[in-house]
Amino acid sequence: MPKISKTLVEGLKRSKDRVKGSNQIVWDSELRGFGVSLGSQGTKSFVVQYRTPEGRTRRKVIGRFGLMTAEEARRYAKAFLGDVAKGTDPLAEAESQSNYTINEICDWYLERAAAGKIIGRSRRPIKSSTLAMDRSRIEAHIRPLLGDRVIERLRLGDIEAAQAEIAAGATAKPRKGSRGGVTTGGEGVASRSMSTLHAILEHAVRLGEIEKNPARGIRRLASSPKMRWLSQAEIRSLGTALREAEAEFEHPKGIAVIRLSLLTGFRRLEALSLERSWLLEEEHAIHFATTKTGAQRRVIGESAQKLLLDQPNDGSKYFFPADWGDGHFIGVVRVLDRICARAELENVTPHVLRHTFASVAGGLGYSELTIAALLGHASRGITQRYIHIDEPLRAAATAVSGHIAELLNEGD
């Protein structure tokens, strides 16, 4: 038996006495079980053959010559046969994987990610906040439409059809009782749900749980960007509504978080989960251990810092502790809805407050680079990576937050 090489495979020709329709196999002289098969139409494919622990002979096609080199096939076969030597049956395992459902692979992902065993795009374990969002999309949208489907039989068209159903509201649900969120549809929700599914399947392929990702190549729906922010007149109206609500004993933590979001441009969870130890008073900055774009030191203006220092300290590590338990306050959306209804402002979310901070900063003449630093956006180039907290940046944060604070106090 010769050693299988590029030269040998290129020179292979079928024996004239070979039975028509059968394959001719040449076995490697060095790696037992590794060979090349010559088909009746002249196609050449690398194969690996082995015996199961029960003594059954099994054969697998590794790949076709031309799409795979002889050395690549040899490395694959060596690893494959190494698994066999450990007493496993790789083909039987692959066959069991072929019956994996979306529900099962989602369960696998949630369990592994919760244990810190799946590495995300940041080359770190999946964050708890990301996992919570993934879990929400799985339960609300992915399981109801695709949960029982066998992954091996799923096609790209099936997944894009599910995306269209989510966008049309097929998985939308009203709020149950007085607590909990509303499950909505729409193009943005559909696109993000499919991104989550695609990522889960990619992790499963990379870690050897499944052979292929049927969502690979999906065309995700493009959602219309939300360009809503508050005008100066609307900020004044909001300020009036905040004072009126405060006088009528609206939740003080909700009011404070709304003000802080406007004065800093913080994301909703960044504001809600602020810990007292993160405030660096001398630097007028917050040191976030983790954010959407990694650990950050974010500068804040004097008005924002004063608001934080004015918060009652009941011994919690958070500036805005929960009303019960050890967590942080979470009810800002409800408070914001009630206050905006009072002010007759529509379509205002915590993210609109973040947009408003950026809009005011732009109106005051600050550059996109400065505004990006104030908002904690991910670095887009070498220059931005070297932005650090200096006096001009502190001055910008103080000017923007001070201007917004004045507008909030001007109403009526």
TrEMBL record:
Keywords assigned: DNA integration, DNA recombination, DNA-binding
Residue spans of biased composition, Gly residues class: 179-188
Segments of this protein annotated with the region Disordered: 170-189
A Pfam family it matches: Phage_integrase
GO molecular function: DNA binding
Domain Tyr recombinase: 225-399
GO terms for biological process, alphabetical: DNA integration; DNA recombination
PROSITE patterns: TYR_RECOMBINASE
Gene3D superfamilies associated with the record: 1.10.150.130, Integrase, DNA-binding domain, Intergrase catalytic core
Superkingdom assignment: Bacteria
Tagged with keyword DNA-binding: yes
InterPro entries from the UniProt entry: DNA_brk_join_enz, Integrase-like_cat_sf, Integrase_catalytic, Integrase_DNA-bd_sf, Integrase_DNA_bind_dom, Integrase_recombinase_N, Phage_Integrase
Keyword DNA-binding: yes
CDD domains in UniProt: INT_Rci_Hp1_C
Sequence similarity: Belongs to the 'phage' integrase family.
Protein name, UniProt field: Integrase
Source organism of the structure: Croceicoccus naphthovorans
